[in-house]
Fold each of these.
Amino acid sequence: MNTRPIVAVILVILGVAALGYSGIAFTTPGEAVDFRGLRVLQHPHHHFIPQVFGALALVGGGIILLFVKPKQGW
């Protein structure tokens, strides 16, 4: 099975989601630090993917779907 169409569809879906929600925000947990037997948790990291990258993903996925020919034959 060819993976290009799958990647293209995923890019289009992520691009539409990023544009529809004014960007995508997510949080990753902080790492635990052991200091002399005391376990200290760092604050979680907040990440934001702006709409520009959503538009680029949408355009890139569309280009892959429209212009890249799938491989022929078995």
Amino acid sequence: MTTGITTPRLEPSITVARAMEMYSQMVMIRAFEDKVNDLYKRAIMPGLAHLYSGEEAVAVGVCQTLHRDDYITSTHRGHGHCLAKGAAPDRMFAELLGKEAGYCGGRGGSMHIADPETGNLGANAIVGGSAGIATGAAFSAKALGNGRVAVCFFGEGALGQGLLYEVMNLAGIWTLPVIYVCENNHYCEYTHFSETTAGSILARPAAFGIRAEQVDGQDVRAVYEAASELVARARESGQPAFLLCDTYRYHGHHVGDINRTYYRPKDEEHEWQSTRDPIARFGEWLCAQGLATSASLSEIGASASAAIEAAAQFALDAPYPLAADVRRHVYA
């Protein structure tokens, strides 16, 4: 007989502490994206950004299964992945605003944030462009025997890119510890995925002998449970996997895509936001389990908003890179 205090568990592998951390992370990502949209609309942020609002459960559910030194590669819609993997909001805002304090010295902007210290090998403006990087990282992990796993995030638009199939073929042949996470938010820029994607999505990885799973990407618990099994399997046996997450982006393809009625109906947007919001659903579940109250969740939201405001102000006050450093980190 053993004695002692045990941490209560809500699911086979989700502790109470982890559940609250997951909720806080999703709220932080939503607040970050709301502020990015605000900075853009006030003409403070240069260039464009692709908001992750509505898809938070995917990034958080997957990244919560990873170690700090595990690898991820991201996309042009990558703020949520960066934050879920451990990036600091102040340095992210600095990067978006082109400041020296940014993760890439202000040279990368919204679509090229990388943070090697947290295993983030970088976002990528090329659709499906990071698939080779993630697979290469998995190859490196296997060769070094360091037990690390790589996760490649991409949207359903990448299913039309040949690179993805080339690297999945290699991952299947060489048994590489990589998880391909497809975030199907239903729209490839301005076109519904059903008009661009023939056949079954899950049949594609299956053709390479890669295990494929599908989950509700608006349910962070479902994402976490599926990812936990696939990541553990990859870490132990080097087996690659494919995780298809059904999700939805609340905003347009980018921050300037405001009038979306010509390619998706307003009532569809309203339905997803009002009935399938990942933060609201998880918050309701936490309250139903007696783990949180409306008041405590509101406090988390207020804390996130304050932290994001402070992070944005840090970036606004930060200096720009020196003109003399314009050729720094540029190679020919």
Amino acid sequence: MSKFLLLLLVVSLNSAATPNSIIAIVNDHLITRDAINTKTDAQKFKEGKLEAVNQQVDILLQMDKVKQLGVKPKPVAINNMLKRVAIQNKLTLEQLQKRPEFGVIMASIQQQLSLNGLKELISSKAKLSISQAEIDQAIKDNPASSDDIRTQIRIAQIAISSIDKTDSLLQSQDDLIQALLVDLSIQIKQGKSFSGLAKLYSQDESYKNGGESGWIEQKRLSKDFIKVIKALKVQELSAPFKAGNGWRLVKIIEKRQVDNHLKTIKAALIRQKKNQYFSNWTKKLRKDAYIEIFDHKL
């Protein structure tokens, strides 16, 4: 079983445990020496063993809350975790399920996901805010790079990849599409609605929205697209150009600069505060519980 990637598994004991094996009591739970001996070699030292016992105490108290609050991991989350364990051990899911250790692995996964769900539930109740001073200090400690500033755009396009050429056998598909887009461009410049023409002629999924896209990172577009976009001003209409499998007529609706570093900094600060909130909540669980650790048995 040692070759398997196992998550932390708490062993809840029953009355059959021998008295000398009990090293801690947590409310109506027992923690035995066996549970600690399954840990790493570092825990042969008393400090390591005491740390492992305290981890078990926290988990037992949290699992009691899991049951009390009805926190249950979703089947899809369990299945995804099982697939990860299988891949990490170079097994198929079916092969993993046939292993004798599968029951232990499943129990461990269910427990870890339940604990994650409890943390998410409790942390969601925290009323957290970030001050500008905290943001400024975090940015000072972790300065942004030029790669953190991203240009995003919203575009409208009429995209055509094929056209009926039965009436013009001497012209190529490309020539016919270009001619159509030139005609549409003239109509738009004369006042026709870009959105209306996109709904009529565009063969891209965006036709449903009048050819309009959501926010796109400019550098993620194809080279042909970027070359045209860079030369355009906001609301300026491009000439017909080929990109990918078809031809396009494009205009930029909006453009903005997004500081991804700032978003990352804010997310990290919120995560830190959520972790601290949950840590304080766990400490309160310990304060309200009956806990006795038999140090002399470690």
